[in-house]
């Protein structure tokens, strides 16, 4: 019997992956860049058990048993096993997988990226696989390949039709830009959206803008973003981040039928960011939005207090502070200066437009948890907690 438990980070893209050139192998039409976020705040956790006694393969996700036959899971497992030593006895035993996110999936954050990165990383440990595994994680969910590394990561789209060169590489580790922080503004919204897989398929098929984005805009922007990160140039970083988020959502709207992930609250946060940057006479905060209405703010630690006091004024909440503010310890939250309210002509919205705020930072990649108390499965391959 063998058992392994690992955790892996979620990531937040600043140059977005949107569009595939191969649906089955999950090969993208452009490079993308993201930061992996601290696993102390949000992570996926996966335990895998393998034993000669297991009668069948099993998979639980967030407490629910799942089919073991999904093509994405099957592809990852096949690709991992192909890399393992045939002579490993346990390579041919059945496995039980149990995976959990330590943050609500309702947060609409890219949980599949962390989930597949964690699964593939854990499988690689189980079967003693060394070397590149990001191109295997990619086959579970495209953005998962970036969660295989910590810090700032670039996914190179690659040119091979079979995808062996479509993999992630770390640009710099997490401690390269230690002041960088993120505020995830989780928007209250229950409307069902297209999944990112479905959305990007519609865009790739129907939008003419996406071709211009993938062939002209992103190749230039990605180099500029890498430089901005290497030089810790927040002005350039912020401008590229916001423009790239806008470009992805413009391609979504250019799809047929049009796809709108952002809602009115996301748009008003974006307006607020521009207003605030104009007031500060430089770019001090940057927004970016994925395939949902939640709006993520990249900013330096020194800006958090000021920006949060504005967000709290414009989006008042009626929730207990311990529920509302999650993640890292925030600086004291103070009321907004009357003069700023006047200068910016701010007005407060009705209460409750934001569900909660997660405060986090750039963090490390996946790792093994050695303490047996961390395991999610028992020796018999069944979950500890149902
Ligand atoms: C908007 O990686 O979830 O978050 O490859 O189909 O699983 P699949 O899609 P997924 O798409 C993520 C899209 C995005 C942008 C990004 O993370 O780069």
TrEMBL record:
Gene Ontology molecular function: any one: diphosphomevalonate decarboxylase activity
Domain Diphosphomevalonate decarboxylase-like N-terminal: start-end pairs: 8-168
Keywords for this protein: ATP-binding, Cholesterol biosynthesis, Cholesterol metabolism, Lipid biosynthesis, Lipid metabolism, Lyase, Nucleotide-binding, Steroid biosynthesis, Steroid metabolism, Sterol biosynthesis, Sterol metabolism
Top-rank EC class of the record's enzyme: lyase
Annotated ranges, domain Mvd1 C-terminal: 183-369
InterPro entries assigned to the protein according to its UniProt record, in alphabetical order: GHMP_kinase_C_sf, Mev_decarb, Mev_diP_decarb, MVD-like_N, Mvd1_C, Ribosomal_Su5_D2-typ_SF, Ribsml_uS5_D2-typ_fold_subgr
Pathway where it operates: Steroid biosynthesis; cholesterol biosynthesis
Pfam families the record matches: MDD_C, MVD-like_N
EC number: 4.1.1.33
One annotated GO biological process: cholesterol biosynthetic process
GO cellular component, one term: cytosol
Catalysed reactions listed for this entry: (R)-5-diphosphomevalonate + ATP = isopentenyl diphosphate + ADP + phosphate + CO2
Keyword flag Transferase: no
Keyword ATP-binding recorded: yes
Family: Belongs to the diphosphomevalonate decarboxylase family.
Function field: Catalyzes the ATP dependent decarboxylation of (R)-5-diphosphomevalonate to form isopentenyl diphosphate (IPP). Functions in the mevalonate (MVA) pathway leading to isopentenyl diphosphate (IPP), a key precursor for the biosynthesis of isoprenoids and sterol synthesis.
Listed name of the protein: Diphosphomevalonate decarboxylase
């Amino acid at each position: 019997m063998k058992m392994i438990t690992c955790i892996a980070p979620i990531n937040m893209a600043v140059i977005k992956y949107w569009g595939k050139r191969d649906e089955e192998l999950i090969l993208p039409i452009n490079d993308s860049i993201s930061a992996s976020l601290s696993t102390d705040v949000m992570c996926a956790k996966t335990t895998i058990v393998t034993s000669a006694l297991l009668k069948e393969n099993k998979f639980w996700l967030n407490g629910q048993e799942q089919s073991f036959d999904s093509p994405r899971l099957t592809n990852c497992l096949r690709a991992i096993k192909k890399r393992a030593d045939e002579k490993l006895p346990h390579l041919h035993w059945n496995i039980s997988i149990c995976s959990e996110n330590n943050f609500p999936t309702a947060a609409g954050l890219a949980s599949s990226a962390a989930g597949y990165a964690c699964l593939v990383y854990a499988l690689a440990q189980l079967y003693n696989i060394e070397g590149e595994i990001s191109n295997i994680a990619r086959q579970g969910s495209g953005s998962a390949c970036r969660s295989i590394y910590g810090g700032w990561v670039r996914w190179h789209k690659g040119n091979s039709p079979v995808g062996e060169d479509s993999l992630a590489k770390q640009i710099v580790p997490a401690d390269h830009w230690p002041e960088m922080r993120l505020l995830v503004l989780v928007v209250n919204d229950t409307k069902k959206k297209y999944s990112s897989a479905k959305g990007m398929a519609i865009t790739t098929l129907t939008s003419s803008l996406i071709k211009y984005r993938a062939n002209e805009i992103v190749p230039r922007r990605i180099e500029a973003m890498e430089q901005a990160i290497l030089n810790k140039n927040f002005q350039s970083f912020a401008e590229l981040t916001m423009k790239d988020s806008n470009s992805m959502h413009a391609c979504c709207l250019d799809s047929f039928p049009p796809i709108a992930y952002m809602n009115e609250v996301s748009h008003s946060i974006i307006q607020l960011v521009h207003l605030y940057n104009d007031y500060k006479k430089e770019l001090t905060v940057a927004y970016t939005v994925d395939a949902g209405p939640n709006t993520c703010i990249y900013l330096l630690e020194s800006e958090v207090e000021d920006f949060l006091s504005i967000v709290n004024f414009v989006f008042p909440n009626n929730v207990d502070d311990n529920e509302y503010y999650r993640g890292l310890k925030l600086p004291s939250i103070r009321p907004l200066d009357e003069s700023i309210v006047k200068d910016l002509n701010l007005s407060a919205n009705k209460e409750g437009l934001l569900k909660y705020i997660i405060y986090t930072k750039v963090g490390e990649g996946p790792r093994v948890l050695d303490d047996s108390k961390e395991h999610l499965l028992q020796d018999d391959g069944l979950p500890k907690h149902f």
